[in-house]
Amino acid sequence: MLKTQSSLPNLRELQRWMRWIVTDPRGVEVALAHPDKSEINIHPRCIRPGQNWFQNLEENPAIPRQEQLSIYAEAYFARILESLEDDFPTLRKVLGEESFVKLIADYLKNHPSRYATIGEIGKNLPQFLKTYEMTKAYPFVAEIAQLEWQLICAFFSRSHLALNLDEYSSVGMDAWAQARFSLSESVHLLQLHWPVDQLWECKNKDDFDGMLSEFAERETFILIHQNAQGVCVVKSISSPEYQILGQVLQNVALGKICEMIQDSIEVAEIMGWFGTWIREGVIQKINFEEFT
Questions:
Q1: Contact, 283 vs 184, CB < 8 A?
Q2: Average pLDDT over the chain, rounded to whole?
Q3: 201: buried, middle or exposed (CB in 10 Å: 19+, 13-18, 0-12)?
Q4: Burial class (CB in 10 A: 0-12, 13-18, 19+), 42
Q5: For residue range 162-219, what is the model confidence (pLDDT) as tens digits?
Q6: Domain 158-291 adopts which CATH fold?
Q7: Where in the chain is the domain with CATH 3.90.930.50?
């Protein structure tokens, strides 16, 4: 593709230039026409690195040089777009195809890929959406993206077999009072302003648009984790459950947790939650001080 002449770039120069021209979110034509920082309002991401090597590319009678570069650039963006569509299906459903494509193009201007794997590209999208212009019409989209990103993180976490409660049948009450718990690394706790888990659950249903039109703000607590079967779970939980799991993350002993919350919740109900979390793999390890 390069002409044979003495003024060819070295490999590093060529790689940097190709990366710029292929990944510039404005497209090849605009990038070639407006490559310099002297341009008004140009994003630093779009500034050409070093010399322009376009004229050094060998012309192909069948496909002009600029069209060849555009093919590479469009394929690059299409692959990222496809990946993010898979990672954020509810967000895409809410925004619609056209708005979602615009969002991703704007996102990549500020957060170009710097990762070895394509799966990492969307990690900054929830934060980006908090100040994005589209949030005025859909103030809950950042929380949708947050839920869907945490679900991806849970999916790629290591899975563990659920603990067998029968193995702890001989443990006395005093030991249980001092017990501390380690949560699965797949666990993510979300405190949100909108019940976006409902949109996530209904994203493929025929009545989604009707549900979206009636969607209302409501404080919501969500537990995301990978269960003992390796399936990722999104579960709406109560405020007390959220508070207790937060205390578990802070390594608070079970007895102390019960003391803190027993005025509003019966101890039997609290113990029932712990039993469920153990069986479902939310709790990965139980630590008894007297045995360590």
A1: yes
A2: 87
A3: middle
A4: middle
A5: 888 888 888 888 888 899 999 999 999 999 999 999 999 999 999 999 999 999 999 9
A6: Outer Surface Protein A; domain 3 (3.90.930)
A7: 158-291
